[in-house]
Amino acid sequence: MNVRKVFKIIGKILFFIIIIAILVIAYLIYSKYNFNEYVKAEYNRGLSEFERDSKVKYSETNSYKIHSEQYNDAMFYKEIPVSPNTAYRVTCMVKTENVENEEDNADSGAHICLNKTMEKSVDVTGTTDWTKLEFVFNSKDKTKVEVGFRLGGYAGNSKGTAWFSDFKIESGSADTSNTWNFLCLLFDNVNVNIPYDNGERNVKLHLSQEDKEDMKTCIERFKTSLSELSKGKINAKYEVKEITEEITTMSHDKDNGYYVSPTDVKETLDKYIDAGKYDHIFIAFRTGDINTQNEIPVNDWIGLGGMQYRGIGFSNIRLPNESNNYIYKYDTRINTFPEEVYIHEFLHTLERNSEEYGYEVPELHSYSYYGYQDQKLVGLKDWYKDYLNCEIRSSSGNIGLNEEIFTKKPAKASDFNLSIELNDLKEPANIFEEIGILFKKLIKMFSNESSPNIENQNELVESEIGA
Ligand SMILES: [Zn+2]
């Protein structure tokens, strides 16, 4: 063998070693940034890092890491097919390091969500070891949803690091009875600081024994009225709980003034929602007291509805500032429909659900357009009755709530007693599946535009009833 030949062989070997090294490096880089079929999205583009982590991981598979050095809303999501009106549960493991929200008390942090909706799981913030996150939702009228794993949220930005792993989706069977389980929380104490002049003012308010008795009477009457007015199409069960923990923050907007958003009382709500049995939540509290001259400014609302928390309808019931007000008191000469605010606010939830399920529904506040009036003693009782029974006369026939909406309730833990695991969030099982996904992504890349931005979600949908 001559020297030239030896060099040639060595050259060939070196060439192969270099090629293999390049392939190995390319694979390592690829696997560090490969999010399989998930789409990465940010509100402020380029501010967050998305990586697969081989060191901090929960199981065999490398975890999915989002790191935001500055405040941002970042997530990775995947579109999955769903059957309409079906309960789904998504779970994953999550670990966080120094996760902080830009605004105090925001419904943000590391969580699972449905992209382009306000539906989400609870948040994980701070520094935590691996914990299980669970998120249930009803697909409503949709045939596909985008399930997202997120650091931030529609309600505010977050920073820090979150690792996600072990994604799983199951379908359950929704409870389709027409009996709704209501939770009524009586918040005994309000203790909030509100801006005043250039500083702050502390306002403390309490429910009296009389207030609490009025609320208990109203919710009992609400239960009876709901069945009667709807001619048995929808029924109510309820539990009243007295809450001694204070309401310490309130939300504010231009239309309503101050009000209690779900996030203001989320610690209390989470405790009850975790039990997985409620379909709607009322909270009752005071915003003023004429005796102590204490008052939090509200824009003339007595009830506030149309809000939701973890997919469950949420309404504010405000006690009036004076105790001689008859809005929640039954009196044959003054008010024979004291449960009206409860009926009204719950109807806002059915109104909202109808829109989300794709049913036509007249606006709850459009009563005068259809010739109804706020009457002495009974308020808008006739309107609610016709609204519930789809008996409002209009030029295009009778309108109102579609009867089917009474059986469409929020997804909850009991829907998953016999759940079926779906494959949609499974990790690729082998290299061939991974290559398959890579090809799919390449095809998408050539046929599609660039990575999407998270659109900022609107604030809560609210509406009010006149006092
Ligand atoms: Zn209203």
Per-chain topology:
Layout: H1 3-33, E1 39-42, E2 48-53, E3 63-72, E4 74-81, E5 87-101, E6 109-114, E7 126-138, E8 144-152, E9 158-171, E10 179-187, E11 189-196, E12 199-206, H2 209-229, E13 235-243, E14 251-253, E15 257-259, H3 266-273, E16 280-286, E17 288-289, E18 294-295, E19 301-309, E20 312-319, H4 340-356, H5 381-389, E21 392-394, E22 397-399, E23 420-422, H6 431-447, E24 463-466
Parallel strand pairs: 10-13, 10-16, 16-20
Antiparallel strand pairs: 1-4, 2-3, 3-9, 4-8, 5-7, 5-9, 6-8, 9-23, 11-12, 14-15, 17-18, 19-20, 19-24, 21-22
The structure holds zinc ion.
Zinc ion binds at residues 344, 348, 364-365, 463-465.
Overview of this protein structure:
It is a single chain. The chain has 467 residues and is an alpha+beta fold. The protein folds into two domains: 39-174 and 415-447, Sandwich (Jelly Rolls); 179-410. The protein is 22% helix and 36% strand. The protein contains six helices and 24 strands. Strands 2, 3, 5, 7, 9 and 23 form a six-stranded antiparallel beta sheet that branches. Strands 13-10-16-20-19-24 form a six-stranded mixed beta sheet, with helices on one face. Strands 1-4-8-6 form a four-stranded antiparallel beta sheet, with no helix packed on it. Strand 19 (301-309) and strand 20 form a beta hairpin. The longest helix is centred in the N-terminal third of the chain and has 31 residues, at 3-33. The N and C termini lie far apart (103 Å). The model is unreliable at 457-467 (pLDDT under 50).
